[in-house]
What does this fold into?
Amino acid sequence: MSTDYTSNQQIIEAAHKSLDQEIWDFIGGGTESETTLRRNRLALDQIALRPRMLRDVSDIDTGGTLLGHDLTIPAILAPMGNMKKMHPAGAVEAARAAAKFGTVQVISSTSQTDPEEGASAEETNKFYQFYIQGDDEWVFDMLRRIKGCGYKAFSFCVDSAVMAPSANVKLGRWIAPKHRTNPDRINQDKLTWDRLERYRDAAGLPLLVKGLTTAEDAEIAVARGVDAIWVSNHGGRTLDHGRGTIECLPEIAAVAKGKCEIVFDGGILRGTDIAKALALGADTVAIGKLQAWALGAGGAETLQRSLEILAAEFRMTMAYLGVTKIQDLTPAYTAAATAVGPAHEMSAFPGLADNRLT
Ligand SMILES: Cc1cc2nc3c(=O)[nH]c(=O)nc-3n(C[C@H](O)[C@H](O)[C@H](O)COP(=O)(O)O)c2cc1C
It folds into this structure.
């Protein structure tokens, strides 16, 4: 029973048992040496928390918002491709969990190619992330469709000018879907700030720019008036030898905090991870791999349970830190530290830290 899970470690172990090896590898894999993938966790582990005592924490509000939409905790569902291999209903299944838990779901065009299919799922606030697969007219048409079927915002993933080759052992076992071998399908390499701004103006919807990791780009994004910067390295699935995303967050917050919203992702598996990201300037975090594992372990019910576990951990962390509102989290609650063990995509769980499930 999904409701019996008491930790996300159990959910990951269940996913390992139930998912085919091919999709298991696809979910957990990173590009080439997996340095970026591992650094996402390592960088989180190199931050310690600095709690404050003797404050009344009997009334904690974990709630957040993203672009005006309420969130039970400041965590949303990140866009992911090939979700129908995680569960037959794909992103539509994840929408059920998002609705019940109370969060925003971002749907990827590589999961639900037709925005209408994703939009028809459970009533929840949905954003649409799509890869550019055509000329301007193609993009304008997509934007009309996205708005027409009720998405509340759209996102371009700007860290994916090209598709990463499957050079990594795990990803190499993944049988590439057709679109990866069709050069016409992905036209991301022509995307520029000018094009992005034209699309945003035409869309009449808020734009999240996903995949920024530097202050320089964040400054441009602010100057161009984007609605949200999404600090992300694609979970270590695009450029290898990048920094862990939490290392990138402070410099971006320094130029963008308060000027646009800041979403953060990369390695989020625990309530303490959410607290660290918020303390260092994020308004909201996004969940990638954990969402995939939970969906694969047991569909919407297990994904909902996974989010509830994360919410309980986050609430507990806030209580221990002595904060009652997410806005109270600041860099003062963090300090540099030494990681205590090896870092990999599931090392936030003691039973898996030395026993990476492959
Ligand atoms: C299996 C998988 C597929 C993904 N596909 C997409 C995608 O289609 N579009 C996109 O913008 N990001 C995609 N991502 C990246 C996520 O949106 C997110 O940035 C990343 O997973 C966050 O890191 P985490 O997995 O450590 O939580 C994918 C991630 C995973 C794990």
User: Anything to note?
Assistant: The chain has 14 helices and twelve strands. Residues 26-27, 40, 78-81, 108, 110, 129, 157, 210, 232, 234-235, 237, 265-268, 287-289, 292 surround flavin mononucleotide (CB under 6 Å). The two ends are 24 Å apart (CA to CA). The chain has a mean pLDDT of 93.
